[in-house]
Amino acid sequence: MNIVRFFCGFFLIVICGFIQDKSFHLTIPPNWSLPIYDFNKNPLSKEKIELGRNLFYDPILSRNNTISCGSCHSPYNAFTHVDHALSHGIDDKIGTRNSPALMNLAWQPIFMWDGAVNHLDVQALAPIHNPDEMGESIESVVKKLQNSPRYISLFYKAYGDSIITGEYTLKALSQFMLTLVSANSKYDKVQKHQAEFTIQEQKGYSLFKQHCASCHQEPLFTTQQFANNGLLPDPELRDVGRMGITHNPKDSLLFKIPTLRNIEFSYPYMHDGRFKTLSQVLQHYNQGIHRSPTLSQHLSQPKQLSSDEKVDIIAFLLTLSDREFLFNPEFSFPRK
Amino acid sequence: MRILLIIASLCLSSHETFAVENTSLVFVPTFQGRAIQLFDSSYILNKKDTIRFTSIKWYISNIQLLDDNRIIWSDKGNVHLFDFDSNKIPLIEIPTKRNCTTIRFGLGVDSLVNVSGALGGDLDPTKGMYWTWQSGYINLKLEGTSSSIKSSKKEFQYHIGGYSFPYNMYRTITLPMVMSDKIIIHFEIDKILQASDITTLHHIMSPNNNAQTFADSLLLSFSIKQ
Fold first, then answer.
1. Residue A16 is inside which H or E element, if any?
2. Sign (positive/negative) of CA torsion A91, A268, A266, A296?
3. Cα–Cα distance between A120 and A108 in angstroms, integer?
4. Distance from CA of A271 to the nearest CA of B (A)
């Protein structure tokens, strides 16, 4: 009898082991709030993440199989398009905005520079359908996937179903993007008392808290809100930002406050990629603020930072680089 | 274990004995009382504008049956796509509640659905009823041509959707109803088109004031033929 019980118990443990192996939990870094993404509606699993990763790096999502998500969101540049101020898409068409770095998306409530997208799951529809980006449609992507034996097997592993749907495709892409968590920079190690700032970094940190943190709030380095940070509007792009979505004049020239994590690698900067270097950015906040009715009150007073102070802030910003994130083999192009 | 089996078989058998009587609910898009055929150009609006429809698709959701003001049945959460283009017109089964006096339903999908990420079934984004450059479902797609439109293609395209204030296009429609075996609801497209001037306003492609006016005209464009 005891032996039977023992074996039953043993088998149960083995089964549990298998079940646990399949599901995947995102670790929430210490002192971070709970993610906004509802994982109950899209529970992570290794197979789904792997499927999402394959989709993310596969040009099959574009009309002529030339552009993948990874073309504009490269892992070695914190998932942004390095060197290009405005993103480059299908047939070498140039978009109207700079591709944002992708990380910590589970904590982000709204997407795109103007907040046009309200949920991570539906984000991929925008580039897939944009004629200047991937020039495709989700209907046709699903058909192409359904004709690919490799994807039929990847979807089967992930969803246990021989049919491929738009919902599965989008949710798998979300799964991969949700795993892109960056929380192990020098800054994070200092918070965990595993490292120490240099004197210069410490000075930069204090100045940052005084001048920048009202918008670029720790630990995500954004309040997740929209603000007008005083950029002179580009007369050709005529981008009104958030107002384009809400039609509310109070939202004119407001853009999403971006995270500053891995900022060293995500140049060029701002929604139109107008600045190539961090010192240009600091120069802007110091002297370049363009006054307009919607300018944020946090920037209404001139900053008057000395050259040393600007250098100190940059030294601090460099402590936000997370090499473990940037060179994580789990995030890069999948081996087929 | 045996007890479990007994319970299981009880569950299964009891399910069958409570068969409910059902009524089917049908939506028919009409023009001046006639059922619309796509690509037929014999529809005439305001005695002068000939109209030809090339696409009619819409969502119906949150159907409720009421006895005066009391909800006696609801299929809350269910959304049905009426895809006239590919002849996918669902026959909706509702319980035959004899005391029902009123039916209520939503045209489109409510804001909760609109912020719920990727969904499946009739709400799968491959159904062509999801905006891509901005999040949100299209509640109603109405496309076609009219001789009175000046542009070279003579096209009209109305994509009515939007879920957030002030551009929430979801509309709740309430109609008096007498229960029978089959309920046919006319979706009177001519009434919608009459509410705005097709010659000047032939494209609505995003949530804005024009879409708002258009959505309001939906409130008066359903009727029950019994």
1. helix A2-22
2. negative
3. 8
4. 17
Query: Does some domain include residue B184?
Result: yes
Instruction: Give the tokens for residue A179.
Output: 């795993």
pLDDT tens readout for residues B154-184? 999 999 999 998 899 999 999 999 999 999 9
pLDDT digits (tens, 9 = 90+) for B115-132: 999 999 999 999 999 998
Q: Sort out which chain B residues have CB atoms less than 8 A from A117's CB and list them.
A: 134-135
Q: B127, B103 in Cβ contact below 8 A?
A: no
Whole-model pTM: value is 0.89
Q: What distance in Å separates the CA atoms of residue A44 and residue A22, rounded to the nearest whole number?
A: 9
Q: Which domains are seen in chain A, by residue range?
A: 42-182 (1.10.760.10), 186-320 (1.10.760.10)
Alpha-carbon span A106 to A336, nearest angstrom: 27
Which residues are within 8 A (CB) of A110 and not within 5 positions of it... i.e. 6 or more apart? A117, A118, A224, A256
- How does DSSP assign A72-89, residue by residue? HSBGGGTTB-TT-SS-B-
- Tell me how far apart the alpha carbons of residues B225 and B28 are, in angstroms, rounded to a whole number: 10
Tokens of A183: 């929380």
Phi, psi values for residue A237, rounded to 5°: -75, -30
Residue A325 DSSP symbol: H
- With respect to residue B12, please indicate whether it lies within any of the assigned structural domains: no
Within-domain flag for B4 = no
Q: Do A165 and B120 touch (CB under 8 A)?
A: yes
Q: What is the pLDDT of residue A77?
A: 78
- Condensed to tens digits (0 to 9), the pLDDT of residues A239-258 reads 999 999 999 999 999 999 99
Q: Where are the beta strands (DSSP E) in chain A?
A: 226-227, 255-256
Distance from CA of A105 to the nearest CA of B (A): 14
Integer distance in angstroms from the first to the last C-alpha of chain A?
Answer: 49
Per the structure, how many domains does chain B have? Answer: 1
Compute CA A64 distance to the chain's CA centroid, rounded to the nearest angstrom.
26
Sort out which chain A residues have CB atoms less than 8 A from B135's CB and list them.
116-119, 122
Between the alpha carbon of residue B157 and those of residues A161, A250, B42, B122, B170, the distances in Å are 37, 30, 19, 22, 18
Strand, coil or helix: A263: helix
Cα A66 from chain centre? 22
CB nearest A119 (choices: B117, B127, B167) = B117
- Domain assignment present for residue B16? The answer is no
Contact state of B167 with A247 under an 8 Å Cβ cutoff: yes
SS3 B154: coil
Q: Give the distance from residue B196's alpha carbon to the nearest chain A alpha carbon, in angstroms.
A: 22
- Which residues 6+ apart lie within 8 Å of B35 measured at CB? B28, B29
